Amino acid sequence: METTLNVREFSNISMIKGPLMVVKGVTDAGYNELVEIEMENGEKRRGIVVDSQLGMAVVQVFEGTTGISPTGTNVKFLGRGLEVKISDEMLGRVFNPLGEPLDNGPPVISGEKRDINGSAINPAVRDYPEEFIQTGISAIDGLNSLLRGQKLPIFSGSGLPANILAAQIAKQATVRGEESNFAVVFAAIGIRYDDALFFRKFFEETGAINRVAMFMTLANEPPVVKILTPRTALTLAEYLAFEKDMHVLAILIDMTNYCESLREISAAKEEVPGRGGYPGYMYTDLATIYERAGKVKGKKGSITQMPILTMPNDDMTHPIPDLTGYITEGQIVLDRSLYNKGIYPPINVLMSLSRLMKDGIGEGKTREDHKDLANQLFAAYAKAVDTRGLAAIIGEDSLSETDRKYLLFGDAFERKFVNQGVNENRDIETTLDIGWEILSILPERELTNIKEAYIKKYHPAYRGKK
């Protein structure tokens, strides 16, 4: 949005409908242009242009349209997008998407104003993600590794502990060797009040708040404010990464609330709905958020994104997870059956995938045996799950000795490797060692995906015999 446009004033409101207000006589309103509304009693509200046609502009009011009269109200088009003052002072603080403090602290003094509608990183200057980020969670680090500059969403279901997992990753994640230069930007979009309290309390009690900047909107706030939340958060992430050379992890929770807000605004504008009632441009809109993550050539900093979304009815083919999967580089899937077994985090490693993992692990990055070990754990767990199905049909007594070992392996994998405490921060060596320990349940002839040299070096049967 160009900032050279002049401020224009209008007072001819032709329609007010829900959170939207139609202003007539406007010929040059820009999309996402900031608007100031002054009512007869002197009260001021803000909004942005969500649609512009010949001779009229549709404005979405942040605070809602209740109490606004079509007569006697003055509407100023400010000729610029929504700008928020951002600074590294924001770390350790909680804000709303307009940059106003929610933690009773002072407003941001130093810093620079930036338009929150940033653009995607230019593909020509993108750098390929190759550095491993340690989250301290075995199911992610060992089998679906997160790399610096990657977009790796978490697909959750209603009632699954995505909030706790998000908070744990925010507390634990780090680039090894660059711990002091790591920050987390946490965008909570349209969350419930008790969830908001949980996040604040968790970060404050664990001391993680010092490196976390939170942007928060609650479920009862207008849809347009929810739509601004990830954009303001990513604007700060871009500033910290590319101006302050920090490694930033942006956690966006819950993108389902974001998409519901998008649908609400689209319905209010009476647009033709697309799949599932969501607007046809939802793919493009999500891409404007997800593609703001990455590494830039010649810059030390980076933005890694973990969007978290709730799959309606646990359905991975629903438009929100489906479109997210197209834009991002893999997914971590939470599983209800594992959750019901009492396993935390209930990550289904067979449904999960990190497309960039192979480039960020191995010798000099994690450990030389990481790739082979991950392949073997995947293969063995897949066979264990198949064997469970077979045992349910023919009975465990009819299985071969090897198959029974696979059943033992499957249980140990879930109980020891996937399962861990909320405050348990495992380094990658610990994760890999647990992997070897549970693989030792299987006969050595079954370890067909691992080089002989690694078996001799890391397998518990040989480790004591040097």
TrEMBL record:
Q: Which residue ranges does the record assign to the ATPase F1/V1/A1 complex alpha/beta subunit nucleotide-binding domain? A: 136-354
* Places the protein is found: Cell membrane
Q: Does the keyword Transport apply?
A: yes
In terms of superkingdom, the source organism counts as Archaea
GO process annotations (BP): proton motive force-driven plasma membrane ATP synthesis
Pfam families in UniProt: ATP-synt_ab, ATP-synt_ab_N, ATP-synt_VA_C
Q: Which residues cross the membrane?
A: none
- Bilayer disposition of the protein: Peripheral membrane protein
Molecular function (GO) terms listed? ATP binding; proton-transporting ATP synthase activity, rotational mechanism; proton-transporting ATPase activity, rotational mechanism
Where is each ATPase F1/V1/A1 complex alpha/beta subunit N-terminal domain found?
A: 13-79
Example of a GO cellular component annotation carried by this entry: plasma membrane
InterPro entries tied to this protein: ATP-synt_VA_C (IPR055190), ATPase_a/bsu_AS (IPR020003), ATPase_A1-cplx_bsu (IPR005724), ATPase_F1/V1/A1_a/bsu_N (IPR004100), ATPase_F1/V1/A1_a/bsu_nucl-bd (IPR000194), P-loop_NTPase (IPR027417), V-ATPase_su_B/beta (IPR022879)
Where would you say this protein principally sits, based on its record? membrane
Give the UniProt keywords, A-Z.
Answer: ATP synthesis, Cell membrane, Hydrogen ion transport, Ion transport, Membrane, Transport
Q: Which residues form the ATP synthase A/B type C-terminal domain?
A: 359-458
Q: How does it assemble?
A: Has multiple subunits with at least A(3), B(3), C, D, E, F, H, I and proteolipid K(x).
Instruction: Outline what the protein does.
Output: Component of the A-type ATP synthase that produces ATP from ADP in the presence of a proton gradient across the membrane. The B chain is a regulatory subunit.
Q: Which family does it belong to?
A: Belongs to the ATPase alpha/beta chains family.
For this protein, the record's HAMAP family field holds: ATP_synth_B_arch (MF_00310)
Protein name (database record): A-type ATP synthase subunit B
Q: Which organism is it from?
A: Acidianus infernus
Taxonomy-wise, where does this protein's organism fall, top ranks first? Archaea, Thermoproteota, Thermoprotei, Sulfolobales, Sulfolobaceae
